[in-house]
């Protein structure tokens, strides 16, 4: 893919730069900001019972938080130690003792009164558990009993009636690979993973635009690029170590641009705890913030390109890199004609930005010799997510920002394990190192694995949940669901529907390290809970792949072990041998080392993983830059410029577009009810002051946000959010999001919709009349009209 190798970490400037300081008051005293020192002390206290082990995890293991790829306290971007409170918060998952037996075997109604946060704090699952229909408590089971129950059920099923799902909770490449292999050995293609609901459009769009499914560049490329654009990404909150890279970029003169409906405080300024200057005085990050309408990004990008083409008419070569476009792309004339048809009124109304503001960013990018585009779920979690990302690729291709230093396309991952999930074959469209619909890939894997792969198309996880409610006679009626981690009650739209789906399955298997609210739900026959090891406990260690395609080895770390917990991949192997004992010899995967050796054969880009054995071992697949020198791994070596249609964004007068945001949390695991950056409560609804004024709302006033799908009770919080748009926390706001609305190419659920906002007293005063139903009908009629 690329011949240039990553050159390793660089040093930060030693001399401070007061121009970047937020305040001369030390540690931001009196300001709304995270209290890193206090937070660190609190976390140390929480881990006091296993503090030496906690220190070994931090100094020897690969971070199981976000996908920046910190091994021990160091990475491949900047010299010096890195630490963040997100990693520290996740740390307790690895050092907790087992759940007390009297609590673990309490009445299910008593456990069900706890939140997922409270359940998490109970401790680790120590041994297998079974709860059959009608039983009010989990009872202890042996591994043989638990796995035989699951295997017996699988024996009697059509493979289309069972499904596997893997979250990104510290799961290693080894576990993803074995799960993908076992699922196919058992005859099912119903296997999916956490990237389905975060970055699946990124992979799909990048594949069709430039032929790759991962970041084309490195974090080092941020440092010294002319422009660094964060599009729908709040990296300072979700990947806090990245603020250190932003600081380094600012010191090199990089302009940082943020595009988001909400003016996120953490992206404007940040006190970086591992840089003394920044920890004391803070660092100004964003140079400019473009507040786009929810869903208005495609219009914004069409507007940028329209400005570029207008610049070209006046002065050829002033905006488009024609040499790059001619040598390395297809579709230029079609794209230019498509953009020329766009009218400015529609583009400004859809984007929410004036022509002048759009022109400002277009001019900045036209002048830039280099740029890196970084994005996250603000672009992907739409029913047009793939089109959003292909638009970003269009911008990069037109300017030649691809395949060279300080340039590239980066979908920044929020989980340390998720980049490798599809690359290991753990989704319904993928095989290790290839695609399931590729005849060549299927033949290659069948020869390696020694058995025929199922030929039918597997389902994405959202459809899998819907299949639980199919009629009994349907061949895809989901009867057994095997999940490694995950809590769909708190990650999928329409929690009430999800609850119904989960309780409609015959058997649910929860392979996990902790309990959550979904674990406690009934099933028609049985719920089986299997205790898993963390990545730091697994014999032979494990690997994970970072956002920048660094494959890191995380060793087994000496310390306490939890009861009967087993390595995730080992549980899969044991299950497969019970279901198909005649195929045991074909399965292999007897050790972590053997799995890595097989991965190197199955996924050619991962050749080198078999040599990772010691703490600190790492390699980067694909070289420093994918598509190096503009050459894409497509059939003709060229990238595709794609005309992207504006999505339909009908928002009736008096209604709001709503999207979800993250507070102090890791995925759906909430660590504080208050966001340290803006002091928002989990049920605060971020609304612009003029919108609040129009509704006669005061700060903190009780409100109800509702539509035809559900409602959310909260309080108005005045914030710098784009007028006509509101933001609610995820997962608390998921009750407003419709189920079954998927992006057509990648299958990600839609996490944005239109809502009504009213004072709670108005809503409840009419609750016994037809008022609310009429308002919802009005919304639906106008949305369809």
TrEMBL record:
Residues covered by the Molybdopterin dinucleotide-binding domain: 658-754
A Pfam family of this chain: Molydop_binding
GO CC terms, sorted: membrane
Keyword list, A-Z: Iron, Iron-sulfur, Metal-binding
Lineage of the species this protein comes from: Bacteria, Bacillati, Bacillota, Bacilli, Bacillales
The protein's name: Formate dehydrogenase
The Molybdopterin oxidoreductase domain, residue ranges: 124-577
SUPFAM superfamilies, A to Z: ADC-like, Formate dehydrogenase/DMSO reductase, domains 1-3
One GO MF term: 4 iron, 4 sulfur cluster binding
Listed InterPro entries: Asp_de-COase-like_dom_sf (IPR009010), MoPterin_dinucl-bd_dom (IPR006657), Mopterin_OxRdtase (IPR006656), Mopterin_OxRdtse_a_bac (IPR010046), Prok_molybdopt-oxidoreductase (IPR050123)
Originating organism: Paenibacillus pectinilyticus
Keyword Iron tagged: yes
């Amino acid at each position: 893919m690329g011949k240039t190798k990553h050159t390793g970490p660089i040093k930060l400037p030693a001399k401070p730069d007061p121009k970047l300081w937020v305040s001369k008051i030390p540690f931001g005293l009196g300001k709304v900001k995270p209290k890193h020192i206090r937070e660190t002390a609190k976390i140390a206290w929480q881990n006091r019972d296993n503090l030496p082990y906690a220190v070994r995890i931090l100094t020897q293991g690969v971070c199981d938080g976000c996908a920046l790829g910190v091994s021990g306290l160091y990475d491949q971007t900047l010299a010096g130690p890195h630490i963040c409170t997100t990693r520290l918060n996740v740390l307790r998952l690895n050092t907790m003792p087992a759940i007390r037996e009297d609590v673990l075997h309490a009445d299910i109604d008593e456990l069900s009164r706890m939140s997922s946060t409270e359940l998490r704090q109970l401790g680790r699952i120590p041994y297998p558990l079974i709860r059959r229909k009608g039983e009010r408590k989990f009872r202890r089971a042996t591994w043989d009993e638990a796995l035989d129950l699951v295997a017996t059920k699988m024996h009697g099923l059509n493979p289309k009636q069972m499904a596997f799902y893997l979250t990104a909770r510290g799961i290693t490449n080894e576990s993803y690979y074995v799960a993908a292999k076992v699922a196919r050995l058992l005859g099912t293609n119903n296997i999916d993973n956490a990237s389905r609901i975060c970055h699946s459009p990124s992979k799909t769009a990048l594949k069709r635009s430039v032929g790759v499914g991962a970041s084309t560049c490195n974090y080092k490329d941020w440092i010294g690029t002319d422009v660094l654009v964060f599009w729908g990404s709040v990296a300072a909150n979700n990947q806090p170590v990245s603020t250190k890279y932003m600081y380094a970029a600012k010191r090199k003169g990089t302009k940082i641009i943020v595009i988001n409906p909400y003016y996120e405080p953490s992206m404007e300024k940040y006190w970086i705890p591992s840089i003394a200057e920044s920890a004391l005085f803070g660092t100004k990050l964003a140079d400019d913030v473009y507040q786009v309408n929810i869903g208005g990004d495609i219009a914004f990008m069409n507007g940028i390109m329209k400005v570029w083409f207008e610049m070209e008419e006046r002065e050829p070569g002033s905006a488009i890199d024609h040499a790059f476009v001619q040598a390395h792309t297809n579709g230029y004339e079609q794209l230019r004609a498509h953009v020329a048809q766009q009218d400015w009124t529609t583009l400004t109304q859809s984007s929410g930005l004036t022509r002048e503001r759009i022109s400002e960013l277009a001019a900045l990018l036209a002048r830039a010799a280099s740029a890196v585009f970084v994005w996250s779920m603000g672009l992907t979690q739409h029913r047009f997510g793939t089109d959003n990302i292909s638009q970003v690729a269009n911008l990069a291709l037109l300017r030649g920002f691809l395949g060279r230093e300080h340039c590239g396309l980066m979908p920044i991952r929020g989980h340390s394990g998720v980049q490798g999930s599809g690359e290991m074959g753990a989704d319904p469209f993928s095989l290790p190192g290839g695609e399931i619909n590729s005849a060549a890939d299927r033949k290659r894997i069948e020869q390696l694995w020694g058995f025929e792969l199922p030929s039918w198309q597997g389902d994405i996880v959202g459809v899998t949940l819907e299949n639980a409610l199919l009629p009994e006679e349907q061949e895809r009626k989901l009867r057994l669901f095997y999940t490694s981690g995950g809590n769909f009650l708190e990650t999928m739209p329409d929690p009430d529907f999800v609850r119904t789906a989960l309780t409609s399955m015959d058997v649910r298997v929860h392979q996990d390290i902790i309990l959550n609210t979904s674990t406690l739900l009934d099933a028609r026959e049985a719920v089986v809970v299997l205790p898993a090891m963390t990545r730091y406990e697994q014999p032979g260690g494990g690997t994970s792949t970072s956002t920048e395609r660094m494959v890191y080895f995380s060793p087994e770390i000496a310390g306490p072990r939890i009861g009967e917990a087993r390595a995730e991949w080992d549980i899969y192997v044991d299950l497969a041998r019970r279901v198909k004992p005649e195929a045991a010899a074909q399965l292999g995967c007897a050790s972590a080392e053997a799995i890595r050796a097989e991965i190197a054969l199955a996924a050619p880009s991962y050749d080198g993983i078999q040599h990772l054995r010691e703490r600190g071992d790492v390699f980067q697949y694909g070289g420093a830059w994918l598509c190096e020198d503009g050459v894409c791994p497509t059939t003709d070596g060229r990238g595709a410029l794609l005309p992207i249609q504006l999505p339909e964004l009908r928002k009736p007068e008096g209604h709001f577009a709503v999207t979800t945001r993250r507070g102090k949390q890791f995925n759906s695991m909430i660590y504080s009810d208050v966001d340290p950056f803006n002091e928002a409560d989990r049920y605060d609804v971020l609304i612009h002051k003029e919108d609040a004024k129009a509704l006669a709302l005061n700060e903190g006033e009780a409100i109800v946000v509702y539509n035809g799908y559900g409602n959310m009770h909260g309080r108005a919080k005045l914030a710098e959010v784009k007028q006509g748009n509101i933001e609610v926390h995820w997962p608390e706001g998921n009750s407003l999001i419709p189920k079954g609305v998927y992006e057509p190419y990648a299958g990600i659920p839609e996490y944005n919709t239109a809502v009504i906002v009213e004072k709670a007293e108005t809503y409840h005063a009419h609750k016994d009349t037809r008022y609310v139903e009429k308002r919802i009908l009005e919304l639906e009629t106008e949305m369809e009209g």
